[in-house]
Amino acid sequence: MSYDLKAVIAAAAALRAASRALPAARLASIGQGLSLMPMTDALFDTLTDGSGAGALGFRRLPGGFETTLADWSAGGPVAYVEAEYSPASPRRAAAAPSTASAAA
């Protein structure tokens, strides 16, 4: 069994407000007052500034999106997460905009 997750996670109200101007954004409640916004191809295309993806060690972080995440985090904690798993090659990464760190 394998999976692929690339998403923003934040408090439901904060993420709803932050994504209001993003027609491609889809939010899903994940409990505990949190929501997840998957990084779909359409959302990626809306958010990227064209400078290339992969900043901070991520494979699918839209170019320039770290600045947007930092702005969104003014209203509370925000995380961009990536997780890929297949029996042959597991990979995980996460970062909070205020620390700009990644772990693989």
Descriptive report:
The protein is α+β, with helices and mostly antiparallel strands. Helices cover 21% and strands 30% of the residues. It contains three helices and five strands; from the N terminus they run E-H-E-E-H-H-E-E. It has a five-stranded antiparallel beta sheet. Strand 4 and strand 5 form a beta hairpin. The longest helix is centred in the middle third of the chain and has 8 residues. The chain is globular and about 40 Å long. The two termini are 20 Å apart. The C terminus is likely disordered.
Name some characteristics of this structure.
21% helix; 104 residues; alpha+beta; disordered C terminus
Overall mean pLDDT stands at: 84
Low-confidence segments, given as residue ranges, are 98-104
Strand neighbour order, sheet with most strands: 2-3-1-4-5
Distance between the termini: 20 Å
Total beta-strand segments: 5
- Taken from the alpha-carbon principal axes, the silhouette is globular
Strand content: 25-35%
* Helix content estimate: 10-25%
Tally of DSSP helical segments: 3
Q: What is the ordering of alpha helices and beta strands?
A: EHEEHHEE
> Which sheet architecture does the biggest sheet show?
5 strands, antiparallel
Question: How much is the radius of gyration in Å?
Answer: 13 Å
Structural class: alpha+beta
